[in-house]
Amino acid sequence: MEHERIISAAVTCINGTIAVGKCHNDCVKQLGHFDLLERGFLTNKNKFVDRKTAWKIAKEAGQIETDNTSGILMSDFLWDKIYNKYWEWNASIGEYVKISEK
Length: 102
Hints:
Layout: E1 6-13, E2 18-21, H1 24-31, E3 36-43, E4 48-50, H2 51-60, H3 76-79, E5 87-90, E6 95-98
Antiparallel strand pairs: 1-2, 1-3, 3-4, 5-6
């Protein structure tokens, strides 16, 4: 059974629409003028989670290395080489992928 992990940044709207992408700004651009409800993340189990829950999932899955003590996941922590050299955004499949072993 595959462990839960974060696959993309996500934004939900009041009308129920969910947009996904590399970062939250990409998600917002997709939606245009819809009223945003929450910024969070999508898991490989197709579940939208808030930033705090996403932090826990990403930490347990070994997706983040940062010592950020706020416990709030930022999309940069998953793809920006400043924070993470083992995962990156794969635009062709629309999710974060592991690129090397720790």
